[in-house]
Amino acid sequence: MASTSALASELKEMQLSDPCCTAGASMETEFHTALQPESGCATSAPSSFLTALGNGVESGKCSSDVERDERIETSKVHWSELSEAAFDPANDGAVELDNRTVFRELQSHPTWGRFFKTFGYNLRTPYPGRPGYYRGSSGELVMGKKFAEGGQAELFDARVIWRDSKFNEYDMREGREWVVKVFKKGTSLRQLQVQWPHGYLQFKGEWYSTRNNPGLIRYFCEVVYGILLKDGRFAFLMVKEHEDLRCLIERRMLEIGPEREPFTKEEGEMIMYRIAKGMHWLHEHNIVHRDLKAPNILCKEGWVFVADFECSIGVIGTGFWRAPEILQAIKDKKVSERPEVFSREADVYAYGMTCYEILTGKLPFENHPLWDYNIVLNGGRPKLPKYLEDWMCDLIRSCWEYNPTKRPSFRDVLDIFITYSISAKDDSERERTYLENKRSKVVE
Question: Does the structural domain 25-239 have CATH classification 3.30.200.20?
Answer without folding.
Answer: yes
